[in-house]
Amino acid sequence: MSNPLPPIARRLAQQRWVMRTAPVVIPVERAVRRWTDGRMGVLDVVGLPSIEVTVPGRKTGIPRTTSLLYVPRGENFLVLGSNWGSPKHPVWSANLRAADTATVRHKGAQFTVGVTELTGVDRKPAWDLAVEFWPGYEMEYELSGGRQFRMFELRRV
C-alpha cells in the first residue's frame, strides 16, 4: 500500500497559512533526526524526500547542518532556498553558494557532494521540475515578494 500522505502534503503546501506556520516544524525535524540517528526527518515520515546538508559557514568555517526537502533530479538532489516564502534568502544557501562541496546525509548514508548553483539557462528547467514536484514553491515565491530562490544541484563526488 502506498503512502497517502505525499499528495496531502503537496496540497497543504499550497496554502498560505501552512507556510506561515511551517517554521514550527524545525524543532520537531531536529528531534526526529536525533531520535532516528539522522535516518529520517518529518518530511520522510509524510513520504517526502529529505536530506541533511552540512556545509561550513562562509564566515566562521564551522560546519552547519540543515534538513531540506529535495527534488530528485536523476541521481542528483535539487534544493531550493525558498525559506518558507520569506523575503530573505536562507543562511544555508549563502553558505552553500560559497562552497564547492558539502556533506549530505540521506537515509542514513553520508557522502560528499559537489555543489552547483543553477543560474542562467539552467534555472528554468530546474524551476519547472521543482514546481511540478512541489507546487508550494510557486506560492512561496509569491509570499517572498518575487525573490528569486537560489537553486543548487548536489551530485555525489
Automatic annotation (TrEMBL):
InterPro entries: F420H2_quin_Rdtase, Split_barrel_FMN-bd. One of its GO terms (molecular function) is coenzyme F420 binding. It comes from the Bacteria. It catalyses: oxidized coenzyme F420-(gamma-L-Glu)(n) + a quinol + H(+) = reduced coenzyme F420-(gamma-L-Glu)(n) + a quinone. GO terms for cellular component: plasma membrane. It holds the Pfam family F420H2_quin_red. Belongs to the F420H(2)-dependent quinone reductase family. NCBIfam families: hi_GC_TIGR00026. This is Nitroreductase. The lineage of its organism: Bacteria, Bacillati, Actinomycetota, Actinomycetes, Mycobacteriales.
